[in-house]
Design goal:
CATH class of the largest domain: Alpha Beta
Shape: globular
Radius of gyration: 33 Å
Number of domains: 4
Helix content: 25-40%
Number of strands: 22
Number of helices: 19
CATH superfamily of the largest domain: Histidine kinase-like ATPase, C-terminal domain
CATH architecture of the largest domain: 2-Layer Sandwich
Length: about 600
């Protein structure tokens, strides 16, 4: 029997390795940017065409490479970062495996120009599918320029699995931001299809965060700084009042490497406990410096997951540092238990007249006499049906209970309006500005006004998206909105769907749109907040629920444009809401699967009495 096991050709082995390292254009961007940082570059430029499918080019002013190194960098497991096993426990560079360039060259057409600073000429290399086609001296600038053309040209099946240009561009922006946020001392530029997306000058960490995510972030940032024998923590956390309803800008970096860790995220969230509304998420940019020997970064091909030697200690330090930062910068309200509140009086000034407090007493006051004090008279026969005369204690208790039930209604929510007086001859009315009571033949139903309106809008938007039938109303004064680069890229991804849903929008400069019209009936004028919440929820729905872009958009718009609890409705609005709910295809359930209304029969009500 002939031998069955054979060594794979290098070209095939490289393509298999590329499947782990280069999953999409953003993966190649990450590897090239990290190589530029490792080379000591102070200026890095990223050029993208067709979301990286046609061209990915990174130009830097790093140390460059000589002729031999230029060719060796495309060999598998060829690296300058490690020489022996022990070096794996002292890694401080971005790359170290020597797989990135070989994997990229296996699935793309690559052109590299590189030159050492002390040399007069550089080296030009062209590779196609792991085969070197050109290697020659060339005139070029100091540093390195690498152009990746026609990614996955020799693997059509892999290329067909790539998403739309907007989706792939968003992933590229994510990788670009992660590298830029760890190196504020390096200037970065990003151009896509000839347009400048980012221009980030050298500066401080706070300046870098503001330049990446927008000026509004400056007022929301609170510094964090904690030094221990295990780790040094620096960075910024967001104030609770700037928290979002979906996970926004949350970043962990260990030794200037972006990581994902749900355990550390829980440590931060626990520190914010009781400071934010339920299901709200703060932004944070937390940088941890640790001894390389205490972590293992070689457990995942993308190196975004690492293992800690003492994870519980890191949790405790991080949680304590965030709490301390919140208290130190007075983000949360504080109580001074050393201060005697009885002495909190205005300081006495010379010449000020001191007045003795006066207490006025009405000796004729009678709590049961309407004429003397205006209080509602209580008749004994209407409260007590006993032959003996009730005591004054009984009367006081009954009166107190009656007045509480009649007059005292606790506020339902912050910002809620005064309750509507209930007219019992009506068959439908609002309760506590959040539920709608409606009488039916067998009893009554209670409708959750927010969940009901979410269902109505969801079905309305879904129908409109499929039939292109929604109407739009023009704005008298168009509104201009500016977004972060990543949010603007997502907005471009859903541009057509947003227009179909009734928004008349147009580009108005870099990362800016002009709203010229809105869906008919939209009353919310805070478009900036609405759009940002919609974009955040679209991202969240796609990542967590694996929904397509149209479904994510419809759900996000239905949630953000719905009537909220605490809003007082007119009689006409109440009737319209009920009519529209029961005209839906699925009126019983909200978007989260919970009931929009509950039915109660008279028998169930009678049992309560």
């Amino acid at each position: 029997m002939s031998n069955l096991i054979k060594l794979l050709p290098d070209s095939v082995a490289n393509q298999i390795a590329a499947g782990e390292v280069v999953q999409r254009p953003a993966s190649a961007v990450k590897e090239l940017l990290e190589n530029s940082i490792d080379s000591g570059a102070t200026n890095v430029q990223l050029i993208i065409k067709d979301a990286g499918k046609t061209l990915i080019q990174v130009i830097d002013d790093g140390c460059g490479m000589g002729e031999t190194d230029a060719r060796m960098c495309f060999e598998r497991h060829a690296t300058s970062k490690i020489k022996e096993t022990n070096d794996l426990f002292s890694i401080r560079t971005k790359g170290f495996r020597g797989e990135a360039m070989a994997s990229i060259a296996a699935v793309a057409q690559v052109e590299m120009k590189t030159k050492l600073h002390e040399e007069e000429l550089g080296t030009k290399i062209e590779i196609e599918g792991s085969k070197i086609t050109v290697q020659e001296p060339t005139q070029t600038k100091n540093g390195t320029s690498i152009a990746i053309k026609n990614l996955f040209f020799n693997i059509p099946a892999r290329r067909n699995f790539l998403k739309s240009n907007q989706v792939e561009t968003r992933h590229i922006i994510d990788e670009f931001q992660r590298v830029a946020l760890t190196h504020p001392e390096v200037s970065f530029k990003m151009l896509q299809n000839g347009s400048e997306t980012f221009n980030l000058p050298q500066g401080t960490l706070r300046q870098r965060i503001v330049n990446v995510f927008g000026k509004k972030f400056n007022q929301s940032l609170v510094p964090i700084d904690e030094k221990t024998s295990i780790t040094n923590l620096t960075g910024f956390i967001g104030k609770p009042e700037f928290a979002k309803k979906t996970r926004g800008e949350q970043f962990f970096f260990v030794n200037k490497r972006f990581i994902k860790n749900s355990y550390l995220n829980y440590a931060v969230m626990q520190a914010y406990q009781d400071l934010m509304p339920n299901k709200s998420y703060p932004s944070y940019f937390i940088y941890m410096e640790m001894e390389p020997a205490s972590i293992d970064i070689n457990i995942h091909p993308t190196k975004t997951e690492i293992k800690f030697e003492d994870e519980k200690a890191i949790f405790a330090i991080l949680n304590s540092a965030v709490k301390q930062s919140i208290g130190k910068y007075q983000v949360a309200p504080s109580l001074d238990f050393e201060q005697e509140t009885s002495f909190n009086v205005e300081p006495f000034q010379k010449g000020m007249e001191v007045k003795v407090p006066q207490i006025k007493v009405n000796p004729q006051f009678n709590p049961f006499d309407r004429e003397s004090n205006g209080t509602t008279q209580m008749k004994k026969s209407s409260v007590v049906h006993r032959t003996e005369k009730p005591s004054s204690v009984q009367i006081d208790a009954l009166r107190k209970m009656y007045e509480q039930q009649r007059e005292f209604i606790p506020p339902q929510e912050e910002g809620s309006q005064e309750l509507m007086p209930v007219e019992m001859d009506k068959k439908i009315f609002q309760i506590h500005n959040r539920y709608i009571y409606s009488q039916i033949k067998s009893g009554y139903i209670l409708i959750d006004q927010q969940k009901a309106h979410e269902r109505i809008l969801y079905e309305k938007f879904s129908y409109s998206l499929n039939n292109h039938s929604i109407s739009s109303q023009k704005e008298l004064f168009p509104v201009q909105l500016e977004f972060s680069a990543s949010n603007f890229a997502l907005l471009k991804e859903i541009w057509q769907e947003i227009q179909i849903l009734g928004f008349d929008i147009a580009e108005f400069g870099k990362n800016t749109i002009s709203i010229n019209g809105v869906p008919s009936g939209l009353k919310d004028t805070n478009y900036q907040k609405s759009f940002e919440q919609i974009l955040e929820q679209v991202k969240n729905n796609q990542d967590k629920l694996n929904l397509d872009i149209q479904e994510s958009l419809v759900r996000a718009m239905a949630f953000n444009m719905s009537i909220k609890r605490g809003k007082q409705l007119t009689e006409l609005e109440i009737n319209n809401l009920v009519d529209e709910l029961f005209a839906c295809d699925q009126p019983e359930y909200a978007l989260n699967g919970k009931k929009t209304y509950l039915t109660f029969t008279l028998d169930e009500l009678n049992k309560q009495f």
